[in-house]
Specification:
GO terms for molecular function: hydrolase activity. Keywords: Chemotaxis, Hydrolase. Pfam families: CheC, CheX. One of its GO terms (biological process) is chemotaxis. This protein is α+β, with helices and mostly antiparallel strands and 205 residues long. The longest helix has 26 residues, at 9-34. It is globular. The model has no long low-confidence stretch (mean pLDDT 86). The chain has a single domain (9-202), classed as CheC-like (Chemotaxis protein chec). The chain is 45% helix and 29% strand. The relative contact order is 0.24.
Amino acid sequence: MDEIKTLTDFQYDALKEVGNIGMGQASTSLSKMMNQPVNISLPYLKLVPLLQLPQLVKNQNPVVGIIQELNGDERGFLLLLLSKESAKHMIKLMLGSAGETDAFDEMEESVLNEMSNIMNGTYISALSNFLGISIGLSIPFQVYDMSDAIVNQIIGLMMHQVNYVLLLKTEFKISSEKIDGAVLIFTDSMSLSIMLDAINRLLGR
């Protein structure tokens, strides 16, 4: 199997379009959940070598990682990364208040998990429907740690079967405020090939 290094223009456009569809649906659901306008956009999407990933998601402080396992035709993990400040701010917007400590209580974790289920679920559902492949998600679990430690934890779960990661930078606009985050999709080479081959078939290749 040939090693995949970059996305073609068509593959990039297809993944960006699917992302816009999924995030549009997530925006609608989160707007209802927060009872105020929410818009989620994907200003950056790229297939990056695993070795470059720690630098691209580096943060000076611990971050919140919400992890969900991919199953079905795709094997791997989906990771939503938020800074502690962004996560606490999202919680405050949803609950009306948030704890001042670094830790997250049970209610706060529940809110973040629900947000992850909505955002990741709509993206994966849009991807599955668009490409005609079966992709499911496990229930989320959270890690609060340095970003490189969270990435290394996922690599450990995959037994080092991942060489490239699909990185989607996200931007939340809630009323007049902006909150940045990132979605990372870790898959093995075979799962990545299945996804990109499905995109190519849309072009008749």
